[in-house]
C-alpha cells in the first residue's frame, strides 16, 4: 500500500511516523502546491492531507487512490461528491483537539483580562525599574470570577470551555444552532449584550458568517473581550478593527483568519501591535499531545478502512 503525506509541515515534523510506516510504503512531502498534487498522488492508495485541496481534476489523475485521510475535523477542502464519484473514501479526525483549543482559549482570555502584554512591556522596556515604585496597577484589571462568559457554539469545545469558565467562577451562557432548553442557553443577542467574555467555537455556515459585524458589535459591552477560535469569516474584519481602535470593545483575540496565512495587508494586521489584541497563527489545535492523538486516529482510520469498517467516513454522511 502506497501512502502519501502531502503537507507534513501542517501537522508538525516532531511526530513519530514509525507506526504509519508500518502500514505500507510511505512518501512524505513537507508542503504541496496545487500544481504538484496530481503528480504526487498518481500511484497513491492512501493520501494524508491537512490543507491541500482535492477536487475532480485531482481524482482523475489518481487511479489507484482508495482513501483520503484528512488530518483535521473539517473536511471542506475535499470535494466529497467527486470522491464518491470516483469511489474514494474520505475520513476525518473528530474530537482530537478539544483540550488544546480550550487551553489556548483560556490563555487568551487570561492574557487580555489581565493586560499581560502591557504589564510585561512595562518591565522589559525598563519603565518598571525607572518608576521607583514597587508595583504598578494600571491598566486596571478584574477577576474573571463574577464575569459572564458567553460561548457561541456549544459542541465538544464549547462545553469544555464552559467547564473551565465555571471553574474560574464565571457565569456561563451559550448559544447553539439547535436549541435544547439547557440552563444557560440564550439567543445570540442576549449573549452579545450580557457577556464580558465572548468566545466563538461554532462552525462556519450561512448563519454564522459575518456574525460579529458592525451591527452586532453595537450591542456588545464596551469592555467585552471577543475571542475567535472558530473560523475567520465569522468576524467582519473591518468592524473589529474599528471597534478595537475606537475603544468600543475591551479586547480581541483570534487564532483564525479568512485568509491563511494572514497577509501583511490584511485588515487585522492594523491591530498587530495593539496592547488589547492577540493574533495567533491558527495554532490552537496544535499542542503536541493533540497532534499525537490526530496521527493515532489517522492510523486507526486506515486500519479500519482496510478491515472494511466505516470509521470516521465523512463521504457517507449524506447517504
Structure explained in plain terms:
It is built from 11 helices and 11 strands. The model has no long low-confidence stretch (mean pLDDT 95). The protein starts with a strand and ends in a 13-residue tail after the last helix. The protein has a 6-stranded parallel beta sheet with strand order 7-6-8-9-10-11, sandwiched between helices. 37% of the residues are buried. The protein is an alpha/beta fold. The protein folds into 2 domains: 2-96 and 288-316, Rossmann fold (3-Layer(aba) Sandwich); 98-279, NAD(P)-binding Rossmann-like Domain (Rossmann fold).
Largest sheet strand order: 7-6-8-9-10-11
Specify the number of helices.
11
What's the gyration radius in Å? Answer: 22 Å
Please report the first level of CATH classification, the CATH class of the largest domain: Alpha Beta
What profile does the largest beta sheet have? 6 strands, parallel
The share of residues in extended strands comes to 5-15%
- Provide mean pLDDT, rounded: 95
Amino acid at each position: 500500500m502506497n501512502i502519501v503525506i502531502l503537507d507534513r509541515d501542517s501537522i508538525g515534523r516532531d511526530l513519530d511516523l514509525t507506526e504509519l510506516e508500518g502500514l505500507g510504503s510511505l512518501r512524505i512531502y513537507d508542503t504541496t502546491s496545487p500544481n504538484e498534487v496530481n503528480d504526487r498522488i498518481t500511484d497513491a492508495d492512501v493520501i494524508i492531507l491537512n490543507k491541500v485541496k482535492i477536487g475532480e481534476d485531482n481524482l482523475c489523475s489518481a487511479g489507484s487512490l482508495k482513501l483520503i485521510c484528512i488530518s483535521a475535523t473539517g473536511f471542506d477542502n475535499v470535494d466529497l461528491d467527486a470522491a464518491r464519484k470516483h469511489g474514494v473514501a474520505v475520513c476525518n479526525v473528530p474530537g482530537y483537539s478539544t483540550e488544546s483549543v480550550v487551553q489556548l482559549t483560556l490563555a487568551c482570555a487570561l492574557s487580555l483580562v489581565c493586560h499581560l502584554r502591557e504589564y510585561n512591556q512595562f518591565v522589559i522596556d525598563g519603565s518598571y525599574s525607572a518608576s521607583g515604585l514597587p508595583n504598578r496597577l494600571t491598566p486596571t484589571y478584574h477577576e474573571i470570577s463574577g464575569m459572564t462568559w458567553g460561548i457561541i457554539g456549544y459542541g465538544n469545545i464549547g462545553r469544555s470551555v464552559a467547564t473551565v469558565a465555571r471553574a474560574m467562577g464565571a457565569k456561563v451562557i451559550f448559544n447553539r444552532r439547535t436549541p435544547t432548553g439547557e440552563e444557560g442557553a440564550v439567543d445570540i443577542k442576549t449573549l452579545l449584550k450580557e457577556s464580558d467574555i465572548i468566545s466563538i467555537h461554532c462552525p462556519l455556515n450561512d448563519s454564522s458568517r459575518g456574525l460579529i459585524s458592525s451591527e452586532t458589535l453595537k450591542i456588545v459591552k464596551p469592555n467585552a473581550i471577543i475571542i475567535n477560535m472558530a473560523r475567520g469569516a465569522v468576524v467582519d474584519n473591518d468592524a473589529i478593527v474599528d471597534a478595537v481602535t475606537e475603544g468600543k470593545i475591551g479586547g480581541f483575540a483570534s487564532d483564525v483568519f479568512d485568509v491563511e496565512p494572514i497577509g501583511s495587508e490584511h485588515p487585522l494586521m492594523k491591530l498587530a501591535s495593539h496592547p488589547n489584541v492577540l493574533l495567533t497563527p491558527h495554532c490552537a489545535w496544535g499542542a503536541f499531545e493533540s497532534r499525537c492523538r490526530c496521527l493515532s486516529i489517522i492510523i486507526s482510520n486506515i486500519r479500519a478502512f482496510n478491515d472494511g469498517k466505516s470509521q470516521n467516513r465523512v463521504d457517507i454522511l449524506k447517504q
